[in-house]
Amino acid sequence: MLQNRIDDQLTISRENIREAEGIFLKHLKRVGLKQTGQRSAILRTFLETREHLSIDELHRLVKKTDPRIGFTTVYRTLKLLAGCGLASEVAFHDGIARYEHQYNRRNHHHMVCTECGASVEFFSEKVGEIEQEIGHKHHYVTTRHTFQIYGVCEDCRNENGRNEDSRSDDGRKKSNGRRIV
Ligand SMILES: [Zn+2]
Ligand SMILES: [Zn+2]
Fold first, then answer.
1. Which protein residues have a CB closer than 5 Å to ligand 2 (ion)?
2. Ligand 1 mean position to 107 CA, how many Å?
3. Which pLDDT score, from 0 to 100, does residue 92 have?
4. Ligand 2 centroid vs 51 CA: distance in angstroms?
5. CA–CA separation, 11 vs 24, rounded Å?
6. Which of 59, 106, 116, 138 could crosslink 74 through cysteines, CB 3.0-4.6 Å?
């Protein structure tokens, strides 16, 4: 199941893509690799997709652009993208590694339904404040944290309770990301 996510910007501009490509290129040079057509196709597809993607899902998408791109290339490219901060791994309920692009994105957290795997992205200043506070208290300079909420979504609760249509009142389909603040 694709995991929807929210972004500050709904689409990514050409300029943004060029900038991200620049970051990637620098990183490739640093680790002694060359930019290839396949690697940049993977990056572009990844940036244009607003979902939390497993390697498999991204592979399926990039094959539409270039059927010759193999699974291993996608896997390695994602690792490289993570290495330069353009991608990060998100762990949901099923143990499958998913990736989301971090280019121009605000730090956010996820809430995951343990029944169907739907996820919600949310921003919370409070979590960041706690990080600062604890760090300060113990004389650490903090760099990051992980925080994830697990639960059962409304649709799954409705399904379990009564055998009704799995959509909720507003017609929202399962797995749609929602913004909560
Ligand atoms: Zn996310
Ligand atoms: Zn659910």
1. 113, 115-116, 118, 153, 156
2. 9
3. 82
4. 17
5. 20
6. 59
Does some domain include residue 176? no
Same domain, 89 and 119: no
User: Do 88 and 8 share a structural domain?
Assistant: yes
Instruction: Compute, in angstroms, the gap from residue 86 CA to the centroid of ligand 1.
Output: 13
Q: What is the pLDDT of residues 103-157, one digit of tens each?
A: 877 778 999 999 988 888 888 889 989 999 999 999 999 988 889 999 999 999 9
Task: Clarify whether residues 19 and 92 are in a common domain.
Answer: yes
What's 72's domain CATH number? 1.10.10.10
Task: Kindly report the three-state secondary structure assignment for every residue of the chain.
Answer: CCEECCCCCCCCCHHHHHHHHHHHHHHHHHCCCCCCHHHHHHHHHHHHCCEEEEHHHHHHHHHHHCCCCCHHHHHHHHHHHHHCCCEEEEECCCCCEEEEECCCCCCCEEEEECCCCCEEEECCHHHHHHHHHHHHHCCCCCCCCCCEEEECCHHHHHHHHCCCCCCCCCCCCCCCCCCEC
C-alpha 114 – ligand 2 centre gap (Å): 7
- For residue 31, count other CB atoms closer than 10 A to its CB: 9
